[in-house]
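ZP: hey, is the magnesium ion complex queued? I don't see it on the tracker
AM: it wasn't, my bad. submitting now with these inputs:
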Amino acid sequence: MEFEPVIGLEVHAQLLTRSKLFCGCSTQFGAPPNSNTCPVCLALPGALPVVNREAVAMAVKAAVALGCKVSETSVFARKNYFYPDLPKGYQISQFELPLGEHGRVQVYSGDRTDTGKIVNRQEKSFGITRIHMEDDAGKSIHDEERSHVNLNRTGVPLIEIVSEPDFRSSQEAYDYLIHLRKTLLYIGICDGNMEEGSLRCDANVSVRPKGSEKFGTKVEIKNLNSFRFLQRALDYEIERQMQVLSEGGTVVQETRLWDESSGRTFTMRSKEEAHDYRYFPEPDLPPLKLDPAWIAELTEAVPELPGARMERFVRQYGLSIDDALLLTSTRATAEYFERCAEVSGNPRSSANWIMGDLAFALKNMGKEIEDCPISPDSLAALISKIDSGEISGKIAKTVFEEMTRTLEEPAAIIQRLGLAQVSDEASIGAVVDRIVAANPKQVAEYRSGKTRVLGYFVGQVMKETKGQANPQMVNELLQKKLADA
Ligand code: ADP
Ligand code: ZN
Ligand code: MG
């Protein structure tokens, strides 16, 4: 029998607010343990929560960016469970009335090449069930002798984004998560760092006979703190469930953990051990009522999103979808490209330089485009010098290398190293005469109709002029000379 996987993701994203969700404590990552705490986030008796307006604003923007309907009224609820790093004994979350619902995203999905290009690209549409706000728990760190609790993270604002069970392969889930991360970074509400835990993902997986309408029993996988882990864990789990079913067994509903070192998932807790969260409306907070005018204002403040920007790049600059996808992969890349294209007036060449030489140089420098030491205006100046014929494309590579080394402007480098293209007919003509005179055999071949040897002559002239001769002029002068000779 042929089986088909069904996958849904639950993604937690830490919001980039400076203070926590219900108190004024700092959210700074890596501060000394337990230093970012106060009576509210330590849950001391009598302390009361106050909602952080900025966190709500960020959550609304996320909901808008993911196509959700923003609720004018949502309700905070207690999600009760016991854990040493959860001093309140509950998280303040949202249950029955979440902040956003019924979202939808368009995602390009397909296999990846080594360079990150998508092959067999298809546009897919995935549903988002809900987005709700909640406060984060603390962190337990276990060493050989004892466990340590750090409550700095307690109360840091999160949004949870729950997808519909719409993914039919690990690749689709992966591409959705990439899209989600990109979107959250574009709107500037999350840093997307999976290693530090600012973006966390749990995956729900089931398999069913292909063609069947009914979903199979799902397993939840936790501990997926990288894109690679997500894909590997899903592939393993899909295979495991298919094996169970094809042997006539049944999949048990449970929570499993991904173990990267063994490349397997294993049981963390069964359905019987599942938490009963005993949700009820949070008595210490009134329902969250949002002014429609404020929602409209926040909706306005959502910048052009990666999908729309990609489509505009295709329309406005005549780029391919692949190139437009790469150039919109981060907002900084997109902004760099647009500035360079505008200043140089040559979008095609700007795209090539940014995706080629500049990307390579940044990789060597270990830098992101945000901290690129070469400004888009400097790169544009270089492109303009090629377009105006001041330097050849080949010399431009030398100039660019020098730019990455000395951070000078291209004009200064061209002058200092004397790299400007020679378009002086007399001096090029002299070299042409010399080369033609020195190669009688090739001249004879040319005359006998083997005009291919022209390339040989061009090469010789360029070599002698260190690549600085105007190639078009070299060609013309050579053809004339060879015809006359
Ligand atoms: P729970 O009640 O266990 O929290 P939900 O219905 O809220 O389950 O769904 C949690 C996540 O699991 C969602 O992302 C949803 O899309 C996904 N999901 C639900 N049912 C299935 C299934 N049969 N197979 C795979 N994923 C599923
Ligand atoms: Zn606090
Ligand atoms: Mg649920």
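AM: back. The mean pLDDT is 93.
ZP: great, adding it to the tracker
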